User: Fold this.
Amino acid sequence: MITSRDDIKLSFERPRYRTIGNEVTCELRYCIQVPETFNQGFGNFNSVEPEVVVGFDLGSCRTAVGKAKCNEEDIFDKKLGRDIAEARAEAKAYKHAAKLVNKYVKTVAARYHNMALNFEAKADFIQDHNKSYVHEISK
Assistant:
């Protein structure tokens, strides 16, 4: 997978493992890195490529937990248990991060949409006002 500076990324700290009997638990701390600006993929706006600022904070780092339990009929393998638990923790981290990012993107999009509607109403008011003003002073 190719990434660019416009990509959302997760960074992980070193995993912490705990083994109790035939169960391995992995705690994996992760941080969501969202680029503050991006400027690709908007087409041609009068030969100017706009830079969009989307600075939203997803808070501090979080922890995902994955568990792996050995079946009673199998032979316990600590390394395999750690690998499975870490993979499950990483999958949970990505799922949770995607949910958070989607929530905040929807919020940001709604706010920009409302700003555009408010600006459009202001532009309509100014146009109507100026039309009336020009009509009044032209008499």
Remarks:
- The chain has a mean pLDDT of 84.
- Residues 9-104 form a domain with the Double Stranded RNA Binding Domain fold (CATH 3.30.160).
- The radius of gyration is 26 Å.
- Residues 40 and 129 are 38 Å apart (CA to CA).
